[in-house]
């Protein structure tokens, strides 16, 4: 069967594209959704069942449908969840909301496009032409479609150490903390070393506490920076329009923003004011300016831009005050077996001195791998064949401003699109729900238009 559209992936980007396609395509069309994740649409972020795992964006901005901004808030009210539009709902509830919204569309199948869910992974693209794209699946089947949307997300970053510097401690290392079965193996008083101090670290600390862990948690990252918090709703400042000069040098942009804060602007309001223009601003930067930002400004951007719910920040602050969580700033050097578990050695950022501590478990929370290709056999195969090209700074795939995937000669591949984090090289700000839902609708609208021709 030749499908009109194939959506490849199982996370939020995939469900957002599918929902928009169902709104836009006529009943005569067909959609295949290809992925082997049983929790389709929820992905890693929204599959969690821990109530302490909260959204990092207020509920009022989390509707999956751009033209219905109150949709998630209404769902919360219908299900008697005590969360206002300014509050931070649990991520598990958001996953249930996505499931319900898709299910309600599928129930109207007689007036919607046909949808087939194919529980398999696409492993090989054997044809990419104007007529169709053909994929081999890991179940032995072949799938053909006129249009394909890649919604594969990105994988976990590896440990920042060469294999030779990890001596005989593999059994102590949790390389993917989102495989939560590791929590059941941790003793309540064992010492945990978490590599990385961003949002994933916050989630794992909270998960450990809910699971009964009461031992020490040592957090090691290069700068020792933790995400800032959203203020309580009654102290939340309105968005402030950034006053951007003509220069796009990173130092000039930063100087302008700092001046606004010195003149009285709330920095959180200023960051919120940047959001509507971030993609446009990113596209105005040269390759050198983008590289400079990634090298010098990324860590600071992340902690100011990707903030956590105030109640979550309070929990983490209390653990730091009580000495349960300790933050170390430095560069990881080696992990080797010692007389009291793993011995973690690092070079302290300020003093440059070599320091070490013991840990029973090493948890990799260094974030997501930047390129977005290494984790996917399909993308690796497509790259080898020249069907896709990596972004020149390693930020996902090379795509144009319409999210069309580009080949090695920077030509749009017919009928091939990408949505979500894989398109960060073109859009930068494309990992959060408010941005992905707009991109998903844009791509779905473009596909719907081609099918009408």
UniProtKB/TrEMBL annotation:
InterPro entries documented for this protein: FAD/NAD-bd_sf, HpyO/CreE_NAD-binding, L-asp_N-monooxygenase_NS-form
Residue ranges annotated for the FAD-dependent urate hydroxylase HpyO/Asp monooxygenase CreE-like FAD/NAD(P)-binding domain, each copy included: 6-154
Gene3D superfamilies in the record: FAD/NAD(P)-binding domain
Signal sequence, renumbered to the chain: none
Species: Sinorhizobium psoraleae
SUPFAM superfamilies: FAD/NAD(P)-binding domain (SSF51905)
Name this polypeptide is given: FAD/NAD(P)-binding protein
């Amino acid at each position: 069967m030749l499908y009109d559209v194939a959506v490849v992936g199982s996370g939020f980007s995939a469900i957002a594209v599918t929902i928009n396609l169902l709104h836009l395509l006529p009943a005569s069309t067909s959609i295949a959704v290809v992925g082997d994740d049983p929790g389709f649409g929820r992905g890693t972020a929204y599959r969690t069942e821990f109530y302490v795992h909260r959204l990092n964006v207020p509920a009022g901005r989390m509707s999956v449908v751009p033209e219905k901004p109150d949709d998630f808030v209404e769902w919360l009210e219908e299900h008697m969840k005590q969360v206002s539009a300014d509050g931070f709902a649990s991520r598990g509830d958001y996953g249930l909301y996505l499931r319900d919204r898709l299910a309600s569309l599928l129930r109207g199948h007689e007036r919607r496009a046909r949808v087939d869910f194919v529980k398999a992974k696409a492993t090989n693209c054997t044809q990419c032409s104007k007529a169709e794209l053909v994929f081999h699946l890991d179940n032995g089947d072949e799938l053909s479609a006129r249009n394909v949307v890649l919604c594969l997300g990105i994988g976990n970053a590896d440990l920042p150490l060469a294999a030779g510097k990890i001596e005989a401690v593999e059994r102590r290392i949790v390389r993917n903390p989102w495989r939560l079965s590791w929590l059941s193996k941790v003793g309540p008083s064992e010492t945990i070393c978490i590599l990385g101090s961003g949002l994933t670290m916050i989630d794992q600390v909270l998960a450990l506490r809910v699971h009964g862990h009461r031992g020490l948690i040592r957090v090691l990252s290069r700068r020792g920076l933790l995400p800032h918090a959203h203020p309580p709703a009654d102290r939340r400042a309105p968005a402030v329009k950034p006053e951007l000069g003509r220069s796009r040098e990173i130092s000039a942009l930063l100087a302008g923003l700092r001046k606004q804060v010195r003149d009285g602007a709330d920095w959180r309001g200023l960051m919120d004011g940047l959001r509507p223009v971030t993609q446009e601003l990113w596209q105005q930067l040269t390759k050198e300016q983008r590289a400079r930002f990634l090298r010098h400004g990324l860590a600071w951007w992340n902690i100011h831009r990707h903030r956590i719910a105030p109640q979550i920040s309070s929990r983490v602050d209390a653990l730091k005050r009580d000495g349960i969580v300790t933050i170390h700033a430095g560069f990881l050097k080696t992990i080797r077996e010692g007389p009291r578990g793993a011995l973690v050695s690092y070079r302290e950022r300020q003093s440059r001195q070599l320091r070490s501590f013991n840990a029973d478990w090493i948890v990799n929370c260094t974030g997501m791998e930047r390129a977005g290709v290494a984790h996917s056999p399909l993308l690796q195969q497509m790259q080898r064949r020249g069907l896709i090209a990596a972004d020149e700074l390693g930020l996902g795939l090379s795509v144009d401003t319409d999210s069309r995937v580009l080949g090695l000669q920077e030509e749009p591949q017919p009928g091939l699109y990408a949505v979500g984090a894989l398109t960060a090289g073109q859009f930068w700000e494309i990992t959060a729900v408010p941005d992905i839902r707009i991109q998903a609708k844009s791509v779905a609208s473009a596909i719907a238009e081609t099918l009408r021709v």
